[in-house]
Amino acid sequence: MLVTEKGKRIDELEEHDELEEHDGLEEHDDPEELEEAEEHYGPGELEEAEEPDYPEGGWTAWMVVAAASVCMAMSFGMTNSFSVYLTYYEHRYLEVSSSSLSMIGSIQAGFTFIFGIPSTMCMYYVGPQLMVAIGGLLCALSFFFLSLTNDPWQLYVIQGVMFGIGSGTMYIHSSGVLFQYFYKRKALVQGIITAGASIAGVYWPIAARELIKRIGFPWANRIIGFIYLPMTVFATIFLKPRHPPPKRRPGQNILRLNFRVLKDRRMLVLCFIWFSFVLSLFPGLFYLDLFCNRANVANPIQEYNIPIVNAITGFSRVITGYIGDSVGIMNMDIGFILLSGILPLALWIPARSTGAVLAYIITWAIATGGPVSLSPAMVGQVFEADDVQSCLSFFFASGGVAALIGSAICGTFIPKGNATGVEGFDKLAIFVGVMAFASAGGVMVLRWMTSRKLWVIL
């Protein structure tokens, strides 16, 4: 990728003076032109103007990928594992409805998304590494406090709000810093870091379930809190930005967010795409463990359905990101979101046997894994680098609203307590499928707004 403004300046100088290249500039160049150019770009920058602006690899860049993956593991990796906690709470608090208990996870996921906006504002003044440190510490403390809870309302404050704020404080900087190092491979590396959340979604639910069984709820959460501390240190050290946060320009608002991007119809469509997809994703994920429990499928599927989903989505996110850079991010996203809408209607509603449930789990995990990495990468594809941080903030915030309301809506379909059978899950499956179709429609609109050619890599 060329630095276009500087590249244009070089072309103008060469066209004006009709020069041949000789060490970048000729002796009979206009001295005033050259002095003005070097004053604007800095000595020696004219020769570097045509160098690639993104490293696309190297030790520092790949350590940023590793640190970003850890941030995702601490934030969405744990959020994706909430269904294990939900099943535990369904048996512990029999008097509380499923809709009310699911709100704990909804608040957790919602705050994770929405708090990306204030986190971005603060990042411009203190840098992303300090924000990651603060967020990781808040998450660790939330588990220590969770071990002391004995009433449902405390779960909303600690596991919902406190963890959500900590998670939201750090996760958004994963993509923001990552896009400073990668352009051509942005879908691939976005897939890798979101796979970090998927891998965490394998070991967190297994660890939480087994620890609760063996040593009880309080000590299980204390141990998880202690694990978060070294993860926070690693992420803070290696999520090193390539450029320091830009200084506030004259006339720029104190929030340092470019609200003008919200006037761009493409930004509004992107927000709709993510809103609809999250409205489909989290209810399907949060209630899957409870469905397996009430459908009385084979015990291994009851125990490991969420790890299975997260393991497969991790693979799907990396592969779709890799292929998406070649065949087009939007093209891939349309197909996978459509599939994630078809499967709940075709396979989840009639699923009653262990084999049928397992078939649905595997295929739905593959389908939903792709959009999680592809959809955020579309932001970097559509908008310039200077606007990406603001665009990601608004983009993820739209998902936060969906996360807050989605599980609560679907919770009204499900009988509370120790109910048996799968009553209400057909309505949940229809909701999940329809919202996915709406998201796919949004991607089609965005693709049409970007290019009206039928066969094009987008």
Automatic annotation (TrEMBL):
<comment type="similarity">
    <text>Belongs to the major facilitator superfamily. Monocarboxylate porter (TC 2.A.1.13) family.</text>
</comment>
<feature type="transmembrane region" description="Helical">
    <location>
        <begin position="429"/>
        <end position="449"/>
    </location>
</feature>
<dbReference type="GO" id="GO:0016020">
    <property type="term" value="C:membrane"/>
</dbReference>
<feature type="transmembrane region" description="Helical">
    <location>
        <begin position="59"/>
        <end position="79"/>
    </location>
</feature>
<dbReference type="GO" id="GO:0022857">
    <property type="term" value="F:transmembrane transporter activity"/>
</dbReference>
<feature type="transmembrane region" description="Helical">
    <location>
        <begin position="334"/>
        <end position="351"/>
    </location>
</feature>
<feature type="transmembrane region" description="Helical">
    <location>
        <begin position="99"/>
        <end position="118"/>
    </location>
</feature>
<feature type="transmembrane region" description="Helical">
    <location>
        <begin position="130"/>
        <end position="149"/>
    </location>
</feature>
<feature type="transmembrane region" description="Helical">
    <location>
        <begin position="155"/>
        <end position="175"/>
    </location>
</feature>
<keyword id="KW-1133">Transmembrane helix</keyword>
<feature type="region of interest" description="Disordered">
    <location>
        <begin position="1"/>
        <end position="53"/>
    </location>
</feature>
<dbReference type="InterPro" id="IPR011701">
    <property type="entry name" value="MFS"/>
</dbReference>
<feature type="transmembrane region" description="Helical">
    <location>
        <begin position="357"/>
        <end position="379"/>
    </location>
</feature>
<dbReference type="InterPro" id="IPR036259">
    <property type="entry name" value="MFS_trans_sf"/>
</dbReference>
<dbReference type="InterPro" id="IPR050327">
    <property type="entry name" value="Proton-linked_MCT"/>
</dbReference>
<feature type="compositionally biased region" description="Acidic residues">
    <location>
        <begin position="12"/>
        <end position="38"/>
    </location>
</feature>
<keyword id="KW-0812">Transmembrane</keyword>
<dbReference type="Pfam" id="PF07690">
    <property type="entry name" value="MFS_1"/>
</dbReference>
<protein>
    <submittedName>
        <fullName>Uncharacterized protein</fullName>
    </submittedName>
</protein>
<feature type="transmembrane region" description="Helical">
    <location>
        <begin position="267"/>
        <end position="288"/>
    </location>
</feature>
<feature type="transmembrane region" description="Helical">
    <location>
        <begin position="219"/>
        <end position="239"/>
    </location>
</feature>
<keyword id="KW-0472">Membrane</keyword>
<feature type="compositionally biased region" description="Basic and acidic residues">
    <location>
        <begin position="1"/>
        <end position="11"/>
    </location>
</feature>
<feature type="transmembrane region" description="Helical">
    <location>
        <begin position="187"/>
        <end position="207"/>
    </location>
</feature>
<feature type="transmembrane region" description="Helical">
    <location>
        <begin position="391"/>
        <end position="414"/>
    </location>
</feature>
